[in-house]
């Protein structure tokens, strides 16, 4: 599902989108576990100060802190409800992680503090991506590593737009604009490479990352009915109408059903750079 909606990002993620991600945290962490694992596998043994951009409810930050217990980890996100849950999760496992409610595009980071900056799907929502990458470059130590995972195009990720296509003639949904803040903002890998290079990052590598993810079949109605633009649109409708449309959308997911699981073939970028 996508979250490219006609709301500013702060309103969106401190309102319906953020609240829904909190409610569906277990489902989403399970779905995107392969991405969190891929980021963990990139972590150098020598990392001391790690910054996780758009960390949401904290999954990728917690995994990094567990994999590198000697590192000081910081997560930043504009969503207060999501970070509230992230703090609870860190406390529950005894991890001392700093979580900052702020926009990484504008936040006044300490200069040259971090030797590792990462993000799992948290960088596609900047209103001014060039300003954001420049700000992160200032926060990075010389030689610091940058790793982030972002979606490739909607066409390469048909699962993510199945509900939208199934209900295109039933719901008025926000139009997708190439390069605009949202799930597929980084679909153009060459554009991403140029943005990083122009903001002072070196050795930029943009490589395809194709991963197989899974949902339980029982979780699919929550995924479709609660998340993304379709979920937001359905919740604004009378219950009977919303349920009928949800059933119509769910029928379109039949090609992805594999027994009691839903198989999701994802097409992402793993983007690497150095300060």
Distance linking N and C termini: 32 Å
Assess the beta-strand content as a share of residues: 15-25%
Helix content: 40-55%
Oligomeric form:
single chain
Q: So what's the overall shape? A: globular
User: Any low-confidence stretches, pLDDT <50, length ≥5?
Assistant: 1-6
Q: Mean pLDDT, nearest integer?
A: 94
Q: Which sequence of SSEs, written as H and E, runs from N to C?
A: HHHHEHEHEEHEHHEHHHEE
Radius of gyration: 18 Å
Major β-sheet profile: 8 strands, mixed
Please give the count of helices: 12
Based on secondary structure, the structural category is alpha/beta
Q: What is the strand tally? A: 8
Q: Can you characterise this structure?
A:
The chain has twelve helices and eight strands. The protein is of the alpha/beta class and 275 residues long. It has helices spanning 9-13, 16-23, 25-31, 33-42, 59-67, 80-92, 129-139, 158-166, 189-198, 220-226, 228-235, 239-251, and strands spanning 49-53, 72-77, 98-101, 114-120, 140-151, 202-216, 257-258, 261-274. Helix 2 (16-23) runs parallel beside helix 6 (80-92), helix 4 (33-42) runs parallel beside helix 5 and helix 10 crosses helix 11. A hairpin with a 2-residue loop joins strand 7 and strand 8. Residues 1-6 have low confidence and may be disordered. Strands 1, 2, 3, 4, 5, 6, 7 and 8 form an eight-stranded mixed β-sheet that branches.
